[in-house]
Design a protein that fits this description.
Layout: H1 5-28, H2 37-52, H3 56-69, H4 79-95, H5 99-112, H6 128-138, E1 144-146, E2 154-157, E3 160-161, E4 164-166, E5 171-176, E6 182-188, H7 204-218, H8 225-253, H9 262-292
Antiparallel strand pairs: 1-4, 2-3, 2-5, 5-6
Helix pairs in contact: 1-3, 2-3, 2-4, 4-5, 5-6, 6-9, 8-9
């Protein structure tokens, strides 16, 4: 049976409270022991089942444990586990009513598992969670950037070998030594700087390159005013459309809203959300162009 609107409301409220309560602890936890990919997969499977059963406590507990496990991974991820992780993060973002972040994680999930189909048992047709998923499906492919590869050893981004990473999506960065053993594993959020990593074989030349890169990053460059202005205007327009979409979404969830109005509100929410995301993508692209056109 598909969840009712009131059941989703209860799960969403509980999920927000629990997530706010445990997120700082998850971020600061240290590794007691190495964690294998199978253990992470088990935690994500628990979270997935709990979400489908509207069990907020179990879902949030499993996701927090999965987040804590990421820096402790001793093996490279695979596409299946990566996909499950981004799906769980999308579910949590949905519970937090952060639809833009839910779309980001759904896009990252689809990058790991193209063609994924979201179950109607989890999100029936017209449900806001499915709308977030459909928006992610309809957006252009993520722009890829090249990370600095390690001087020796290996690198994986969301379980994919190589140094290509999405410019506008969250991902898991892993670095391994010459034997393939993971020596660094971190979640990199949108707009965050990838973590500094030690040379896989304690290569002195790598340390020098890292220091040089750090010095280069400290230099200030000048933005092209027209591109900045366009990015700002696009961002404001996207925010306005998103606010209108959120207002319709809030009305959809209001228990006082008549059932006959739900289809209209769903359609309006969907249209405004698509417009907001499309405008936002343009703004991000313009902002990226502004950054790339810096002058030294």
């Amino acid at each position: 049976m598909s969840p009712t609107r009131s059941q989703w409301n209860r799960l969403g409220g509980a999920g927000v409270v629990l997530a706010l309560a445990v997120a700082p602890a998850a971020a600061s936890a240290a590794c007691d022991a190495p964690v294998g990919v199978d253990e992470l997969a088990r935690l994500l499977s628990t979270a997935d089942a709990a979400f489908a059963e509207l069990d907020a406590d179990t879902f949030t507990s499993a996701l927090v444990q999965a987040r804590r496990a990421i820096p402790c991974l001793s093996e490279p991820l695979n596409s299946n586990v990566t996909s499950n992780l981004h799906r769980a993060e999308a579910f949590q973002a949905f519970l937090d009513r952060d639809h833009a972040r839910a779309v980001q994680h759904f896009r990252a999930m689809l990058l790991a598992s193209p063609g994924y189909i979201l179950s109607e048992m989890v999100a029936p047709d017209g449900h806001p969670l499915r709308i977030d998923f459909e928006i992610a499906e309809g957006l252009p492919a993520a722009e890829m950037i090249e990370l600095t590869p390690p001087a020796s050893g290996f690198m994986w981004v969301d379980g994919r070998p190589g140094s290509e990473a999405p410019a506008d999506l969250p991902y898991i960065l892993q670095v391994g030594d010459e034997t393939g053993a993971v020596v660094l594993s971190r979640f990199v959020d949108v707009g965050s700087t990838p973590p500094a990593y030690e040379p896989a074989a304690r290569d002195r030349r790598r340390r020098g390159a890292a220091a040089s890169a750090s010095a280069d990053d400290g230099r200030r460059r000048r933005l092209g005013p027209p591109l900045v202005a366009a990015a700002v205007v696009g961002g404001v327009a996207s925010a306005s459309l998103y606010a209108m979409s959120a207002e319709r979404n809030h009305e959809f969830w209001d228990p006082a809203t008549a059932d006959e109005d739900l289809q209209r509100l769903r359609s309006q929410t969907n249209t405004l959300a698509y417009a907001s995301l499309a405008t936002g993508v343009i703004a991000v692209g313009t902002g990226t162009a502004a950054v790339l056109s810096f002058t030294w």
